Structures
1.
Amino acid sequence: MTNFPLGVAVAVDGNANLLSNQQRQTIVSGNFSQISAENQMKMSYYNESTFANPLADQMISWAKTNNLSVHGHALVWHPDYQQPSWAKNPGSDFKTKFINHVRGVATKHKGQVVSWDVVNEALYDPADAGGQSAPPQAEYYRHSVFHNQYNGPSYIVEAFKTARQADPTAELYYNDFNTEENGNKTTGLVNLITYLKQQQAPIDGVGFQMHVLPDWASMASIEASWQKIINLDPRLKIKLTELDVRVNNKYSNPPKVISSCNNCPELQQQKQRYKDIIAAYYRIVPADRRGGITIWGIADPDSWFASDPDWPLLWNASLQPKPAFDGVKEALQAGQ
Ligand code: G3I
C-alpha cells in the first residue's frame, strides 16, 4: 500500500494478545507491513544473561510468516518499572551491563528486525520529569540512571555504536515524544542529534512518537519540528513511531472531555487529524527519508489511553474500522 513501512504496535499478552486473537491477526496482516512490540522488547523482558524472550521470538516468527517486518522497541529506555535489576540498583559494573544488554539484544535479533529505537526518551520533559528541574536549554537531558551513571549523554553514543556493531544492517533511530511541539524539547532534540553526529554515533533516523491531542500540537509546529531534523542532515530519516490521536483534551482550558463515544461526532475531527498528519508527512518528508508510520495499537480498548477514557486508534471495541481508519487510508492513497 505504501512505499514506506506502515506499522502497528501489538501486544503479546492480555486481552489484545495478537498471538491468540485471530481477528487482530487478520487486521494486522491485512492492513500493515510492519509491527512494533508495544512492550515485549523493552529491557526488562529479556533474561539478563541469556537474553531469552520467548514471546518476542513468537511475535517475530508470526511477523515473518505473515510477511511483516519488525521495528525493535527499544534497546534503552529509562522508566523504573521496566528496568533490569542491574539498572534498578546500579553497581560498579553498570557500564559493562549496559553495553552487554545493547549488544546481547541487538545480536539476538540480528536479521530479525529492520530497525531499532536504540535510545528512547533521553530528553527532559516537564510533564514527565520525575522531580528533575528544568535543565538549561542547550543540555536538555533527562537525568535517567543511564545519564547519571555515564555522567552525561555519552551513553547514547555508546548505545548507537554498540548496536551498529552488533547488527550492521538495522536502521538505528533516536526516539522521543513531545518533540513535535517545536518548543524547548525540539531544540533539545536538535542539539542532541547534533551532538550524536559530532561524536560519530551511527544514527540513521529520528523517531517522533506523535501521541497527539485533537488540537495540539498545531500542524505548523509539527511540520516545523520535522523540518528542523530534515535540515540538520541530508540523510536522516523521519519515522512516526507511535502515532495515536486522542478524542479528549483534558489539558485545554476548559477541559474538553467526553466520557463515552459511540459514533460520537468527535470521531470526524479525529479522522481529519490523522489525515492532516499523514498528508504533512508526505509533503514535508522527502520520499527517500520516510522511515515509516506506526500506529500505537490496534483497537481503542488496547490503547494505553483507554482508561482515561479515550478512543485514539483506528478500530473500535467491536474491531470495526472507525472514521480514522478511512482517514488514514484516504491520506495514504492521496500521497502515493
Ligand atoms: O504484563 C503485566 C502484567 O503481568 C500485570 O498483571 C499488569 C498489571 O499492571 O501489568 C502488565 O504490564 C503492563 C504492560 O504495559 C503490559 O500490558 C504495565 O503495567 C504497563 O505499565 C505497561 O504500559 C505500557 C507503557 O509503555 C510502559 O511500558 C503501555 O502498554 C505502552 O503503550 C507504553 O508505551 C510507551 C512507549 O513504549 C514509549 N513511548 C510512550 C508510550 C506510552 O507510554
2.
Amino acid sequence: MGYYESVKAKFDALKEKKDITVLAIESSCDETAAAVVKNGRQILSNVIASQIEIHRRFGGVVPEVASRNHTAAVGKVTDDALKQAGLRLSDIDLIAVTYGAGLLGALLVGVSYAKGLSYAAEIPLIPVSHIKGHIAANYIACPQLEPPYVCLLASGGHTALLKVEDYDSFTLLGSTQDDAAGEAFDKVARTLGLKYPGGPEIEKLALQGRPVIKFTRPMAKEDTLDFSYSGLKTAVINYVHNRAAKGEEINAADVAASFQKTAVDMLVDNAAAAVRRTKTDTLVIAGGVSANTYLREQADRAAAKYGFRAVYPPLGLCTDNAAMIASAAYFLLRSGESFAGLDLDAKATVPLGQADIT
Ligand code: KG4
Ligand code: ZN
C-alpha cells in the first residue's frame, strides 16, 4: 500500500476512534512549537522554543532570521514534545501543522517538517489555520466550553469579532479596518523605547501610570462592530513626538496606561455589544492580546454587568503555541475536515469560514 492509501485508511479509521492523540507543529512567527494533546482538551506536552530574544535586537521579527531558527529548532522541539508526553511517533493518530496565516518562510519550515513526519510514519496530516488554533486554546482552558459563543480575536496580525456557530463554523461580526490591536501595542511600545514584543512591556509600564491622557477614539457607530487602531496609534505617536519637539518631558507610564485603556476599552465595548446582539451567553477571548491583564479584568467586569460568561486562556496558551493547533486539529477531525496531501502549501493569509479576516 502506498502512502496515500495508508493514510486514507488510517484517517477513515480515526472517525470511529474514541481517543485521538494529536502531535502539532507551529512555526508561523517567532516561536517554534510542538505539542501533544489528547482529545482536543488534554495537554500531554507543550514545548516552545522562543526566538524573542533573537529578534529583540532588531525591534521586531525578521522573517529570514525566523525561518533559519525554525529550521534549527523544529526537530529537537518535536522530539521533546513526544518525549515529554511519554510517547513515540507511532503512538500518534494525527499530525497537525499550522499552514497559515503567518510568515511564509517560517510556516514552510513547520509544514515541510510535518509532511516529512507524516510521510515517514504514514500518519495522516491535517492543516490548521493559526486563527482557529488561537480560538481552540480556550477548549483546553475551559473543558466545558462548546459553541455557540462570541469570540474576540486580538493578536499581532488580527483583530476581529466572530460568532463561533460550531467547532468549524464561523460568522464574522466585525474586524479591524486597519491595524491589529497587538500591532498597535507593538508600535506604541517602540515609540516609547520599550522592548519587542510591546504588549507585555506596555502592560508593565501602565501599572505605574494613570490613564489621564485622552487619546481620541474612533467615533463608535451604532451599527458596526468593526475596529480601527491606526488613528489611536497615530494619536499616541504624535503626542510623544510633539512633546519631544517642544523639549517637554513625557510621563511614559501615563502614556502607556492611557493607550492601554483606550485600546482595550474599544475591544471590550464591541465584544460586549456582540454578545448582546447575538443573544449568546459566552465571550471567548483569543490571541496574544488576551494575555493582557487589564483586558481580562475589563472582560470580567463587562461579563458581570451584562450577565454573560468571559473565557480566556491561561497566559501560556494566549501567545503562540502548538497545543492550541493540536486542539483545533481534533475539532476539525470531528467536524468532518479531510486530511492533507503532500502537496500541502503554506499560506500567508487564510480565510476563516466565508470571510477573509484581518
Ligand atoms: O497571538 P500572538 O502571539 O501572535 C500572532 O498571532 O500575532 O500575538 C502577539 C501579539 C503581539 O502584538 C504582542 O504585543 C501582543 O500579542 N501581546 C500583548 C500582550 N502579550 C502579547 N498585548 C497586550 N498585552 C499583553 N500582555
Ligand atoms: Zn498567534
3.
Amino acid sequence: MELSDNEVRVLSFLVHLPEDKKKIQESEMKIEGLGDREVSSAISWLETKGLITVDKIKTVHYDLGEEGEEYLYEGLPEEKLFNTLSKRGKVTIREVTEEFGEKQAKIGMTQLAKLGIKPQKGELEFKEIPGIKELFLKRKKFLESLKKGEAPEETEVLEHFKKREGVIQEKRQLLRIVKANKEGMEYIATHKEEEKIGELTSEIILSGEWKNKAFRKYDLNAFVEPLTGASMHPLTYLINKVRRIFLEMGFSEMKGHYIEHAAWNMDALFIPQDHPARDMQDTFYLKSHAKIPMEHPEITKIVKKTHESGIDGYSGWGYKFDSQMADDLLLRTHTTVNTIRYLYEHKEPPVAIFSVEKVFRHESVDWKHLAELHQIEGAVYSKDASISTLKWLMKVFYKRLGFTDIKLIPSYYPYTEPSMDVIVKINGKEVELGGSGVFRPEVTKPLGLKEPVIAWGLGLERLAMIYYGLTDIREIYNSDINWLKTYKIRL
Ligand code: PHE
C-alpha cells in the first residue's frame, strides 16, 4: 500500500502519541507544516486504507443568538420590566411599549406573565414573587457562560432559552476521534526510513534530490471522486425539443438578427408610433446613429401610407408618420419581426415557419421576468389558416411537451385580430406563456401577402420553469452546478 507524504506524517503522529493518550480529537492534531484541511483529508484516506479507526461523535453546542447578545449587555426584558414595576408599582401596557419598544415590551410581558404578573385591563401591577431575582441571575449567568464558550450546565435554563426566539443558537458538529490501529502501527514500523517522492517538481530535478530517493508508486486503485461527464444545459435541451416538434410538423426554421430597425420590429407590424411598448422604458435602443442600411428600404414608405391613411378600406391610425423613428436601431423586442421579414421575402403561400431565438426587453428582472429571454415564434401563411387552426396547433404543440391542459383567452396585440393569449394550467395554477393571433390586414396587405397569417410568440423560459419545476425564472441562468448536474442530458 502506498501512502502520500501527508498520510505518512499524520499516521506517524498518531502512532507516536503518548501511551495514555492514543485517541485524539481531529481538531487537536497540530502537525507542523500541515493545515487543518490537509490533516482532515489525510485522516479520511487513512481510514479508507484501514490504518486508523475513526469514531464519529455528533455534538451539540450552544452559542448566543442576536437577542441573547443584547440581553447580556442591556439586561433581560423581563427583568427590566420587573424592576420598572417595582419602582413604580403600576404601569400601563402603552407606557411599557413606548419605553421598551414594541418587541422588547412584548417579550418582557410574555415572560413576566409566565412568572405570575399578568396584565389586567391594560395595566401591569407589581407583585412580590419569591425567588425571581435569583432566577434572573441564573438566566444572566447562563448567557454569560455561553458567551465565554463554556458548555451549559443549567439544563433547565437551557430548555427555557431554547423556547425563546433568537436568544441562543444551536450548533451541531461532527467530531472525529482518531486512533492508529494495528495495521497503522505496523505500517510505520516497517516503512520507517524513507520519504518517497510523490510529486516530481522542477526543484527536485534541479537539486538532484531525485537520484537518492524512491518514488511513490502510482496507485491505480486509489479512490477518486467519480466524474460527471459533460451534459447538455437543460435550456438547450428544451430548445432542441421545441425545434424538433416544429420540424416534425413540417415547419421551416427561420433565423433573424438581434439588432433591428424600428421599421421592421414595430412599424411593419402596425404598432403605432406612440405605442407604450416603443418607449425607452420598454425597449433597448442603440445609441449609435451609424447608419446601417435597411435590407428593404422601401418598407418605410409602404408602412407610412398604411399608418397615415390605411389600406383597402381599413382606416389606419390617422397620424403623421415619422420616418426618422422608423430608422431607429434597437434590440429586437420580439421575434415576430423574424416572421414579418420572412413573409415579405416569401410571398408564395403556403408557408409554415418558426424560430426559437432571443429577445430583449427593458424589464426589471424578478422571479417571473427576464430582460433577455427566448421566444418560440411561429406562423402559418395559407388560405386554410384560421383561428381554429391556430387553436389546434397550440394544443398539439404543448401536448407534445407534455402539457395537456392549455387555455386560450382573448387578448390584444396591435398586429393581430383576433388575439389570444396561451395559458397553461399546472398544479391548479395558470401560467401565461405568450400571445398569438391572426395578422390584421393592415399588416398583411401592405406587404403583398394575399392569404391569412396565423402567428404566435411564446416564452421559452416560462415554459422551462414549469417543465423543470422551478419557482424562480432566474434559476435557469444561475449556472448552479448542482442543479445542472441533476439533469444528465447526453450531448
Ligand atoms: N409578439 C408578441 C409578444 O412578444 C406575441 C405574439 C406573436 C402575439 C404573434 C401575436 C402574434 O408578446
